[in-house]
Structure formats: structure tokens, C-alpha cells
Write a structure and sequence with these properties.
37% of the residues lie in helices and 26% in strands. By secondary structure, it is of the alpha/beta class. The model has no long low-confidence stretch (mean pLDDT 92). It has helices at residues 14-22, 44-60, 88-98, 135-143, 159-164, 172-176, 180-195; strands spanning 7-9, 28-29, 66-77, 80-82, 102-114, 119-130, 165-169. The longest helix is centred in the N-terminal third of the chain and has 17 residues, at 44-60. It is elongated. It contains seven helices and seven strands. Strands 1, 2, 3, 4, 5, 6 and 7 form a seven-stranded mixed beta sheet that branches. A hairpin with a 2-residue loop joins strand 3 (66-77) and strand 4. Helix 3 (88-98) packs antiparallel against helix 4 (135-143). The protein has one domain: Alpha-Beta Complex (Maf protein).
């Protein structure tokens, strides 16, 4: 991948940073300070697209030259968006609700260029089926602290989170928090538009 400009990831997510490094990209990290509240009038895809754009454009205010990458992930169960748990009790409730059911994971991302202010926003959706979890498994996972910074209170890449998932339909990396293939293709196309 030919790098022509400085890249800035508008996120402190270690998972997103790890995935970008898989693409052999060099980047700085500059988290945004936006409010990630859910708007009740939005679909999940609209939600992740809006937040990824807001994160990227917020960081772009302080970047004179570069490409800013914003991203957002949500878990959706029966039409309801599940964000990150606020307390261990929230995490317990989310995981109990996900147990034995199928849910959706949406991840949106934005590429925002400075100084041109050109941008592109995309999203990906993956369907995830959880096996039925025992209460002891849920409690042990929550006690580990792992669910607390993750949408839907689980990480498919975690030791225990990985064995909660029975199957997926779609991009695995969308569930981790960054759809690598779609990002790679969008990034390549975005660099071409910057040359026009």
C-alpha cells in the first residue's frame, strides 16, 4: 500500500490499531472527544457512519495535513443498539440477553483528508450467533474486566469471547471493530481521488 500522507487514527482502541498494523500502515493516534450517544431516529448503519465521520472530522480540526481514520462499532440485538457497558451489571445483562441468540454487528469507518476536506464513509454488517452461555461463564468473563470497553460487552478476539460465538455470517474483522478488506479497498480508492 503506497503511503503518500500522514495517517491519524481517531481512536485509542488497541484492536483497531492492531488491525491497521496488519496492513503495514504507519499512523499516529489522536482520539476524538465526541459524545457517542445513540440517536433514537437512526438505524444502526446510520449510527456507525455518523459517529465514524464525527470522530474523524473532530480530530481533523487539529490536523493541517493528513488522512484521519474514524471508526465506530455497535452490537444490535432485536433492533436495539447495545453500546459499551457502563457497569459490570450492564455487562452481565447484555451477555445474558445475547446468550443463545443471533445479533448483528455494524462497524462504520471514515477517511477524512486535510487540507482538502474530502471524505468517504463506509460500513459493514456481520451476523453473529451466540451459543447458550451458563451464568457462571458470563460472571467469570465479566469479572475479568474484558467486556467493559467493548460494544455488546464482548470481544470475539478475547479468550472467552471467542468461545461464546457459535458462528458468524460476514466479515470477522467487522466484529473485532474494523472491516479490513472494505477499509483497504476504500483507502486505495480514496488515495486515487486525492490525486484527481
Amino acid at each position: 500500500m503506497m503511503i503518500t500522507k500522514r495517517l491519524i487514527l481517531a481512536s485509542t482502541s488497541p484492536r483497531r490499531a492492531y488491525l491497521l498494523k496488519q496492513l503495514r500502515l504507519t499512523f499516529d493516534i489522536a482520539p476524538s472527544g465526541i459524545d457517542e450517544r445513540v440517536e433514537n431516529t437512526e438505524t444502526p448503519s446510520q449510527h456507525v457512519r455518523r459517529l465514524s465521520f464525527q470522530k474523524a472530522s473532530d480530530v481533523a480540526k487539529n490536523i493541517p495535513d493528513g488522512i484521519i481514520i474514524g471508526a465506530d462499532t455497535v452490537v444490535v440485538l432485536e433492533g436495539r443498539i447495545l453500546g459499551k457497558p457502563q457497569t459490570p451489571d450492564d455487562a452481565l445483562e447484555m451477555l445474558r440477553n445475547l446468550s443463545g441468540k443471533t445479533h448483528e454487528v455494524f462497524t462504520g469507518f471514515t477517511l477524512f483528508d486535510k487540507p482538502s476536506n474530502k471524505s468517504v464513509t463506509e460500513h459493514e454488517r456481520t451476523i453473529v450467533k451466540f451459543r447458550t452461555l451458563s451464568d457462571a461463564e458470563i460472571r467469570e468473563y465479566v469479572a475479568s474486566g474484558a467486556p467493559m470497553d467493548k460494544a455488546g460487552a464482548y470481544g470475539i478476539q478475547d479468550d472467552m469471547g471467542a468461545i461464546f460465538v457459535e458462528r458468524i455470517d460476514g466479515c470477522f474483522y467487522t466484529v473485532v471493530g474494523f472491516p479490513l478488506t472494505k477499509f483497504y479497498l476504500s483507502y486505495q480508492q480514496f488515495l486515487k481521488t486525492l490525486e484527481e
